[in-house]
Amino acid sequence: MRQKIIAGNWKMNGSQSFIDDFSSQLQPEIEKLSERVKVVLAPPAVYLQQLGDAFSGSGLGLGAQNVAQDDKGAFTGEISAAMLSDIGVEYCLVGHSERRTLYSETDQMVVAKVAQLIEKKIIPVLCVGETLAERDADQAELVVRAQLEAVLSAFSDVELASMVIAYEPVWAIGTGKTATPEIAQAMHAFIRSVVADKSASLAERCAILYGGSVSVATAAELFGQLDIDGGLVGGASLKADDFKKICESMD
Ligand code: PEP
User: Which residue CA neighbors atom 7 of ligand 1 most closely?
Assistant: First the structure.
């Protein structure tokens, strides 16, 4: 049975007082939610410690949004996997489309980051997805396959055993245009088949999350699809009540 995961990506939002409010609303619910789904929150790095403390012992998975490609040294502004691990981070997004687009993150850099995370036993949440132009040009599968294969070919099945994949069509991120359950399911099945080309057992175990304007209204139908094992939620994860309802949509 694959693990069900709902991860909230706060991006560059939040503050200490926001975390106080958010955790006072969500903390009492987390234990119950954790019976049905692994709940992960990825705040900006400066707030990881505060969020971790606020949810300490609750079962919440602490997630980072990014990690350095190198292990230590003269890399001003970077945060290493060892540092994330040191403060209890269990998950880390890699290859989010905003990083690929705004910070020119290449597949090679993504592979280097995944290597750092594997080394420190942090679960990589590998984000893949096509732009609207790529989908319109019938290139969606080609693009997603290339993003996946870059990572799949760089590591062994054992190294990738805990990896999570998030399918996030770029055209659905932050736009309010959720992929239809049919489009999402078709791409999730495709992603699983690409993983299966490397290892059938890895494909069977690998949680594949959908991300892109997930909302209270769209979550249940998306999560009801055969190959959708949860969600990566941006905007809606900043509202404690919505995020809780989204977690409750997972059966
Ligand atoms: C994201 O950035 O990972 C995301 C899915 O954002 P949103 O839910 O706001 O589209």
Answer: 234
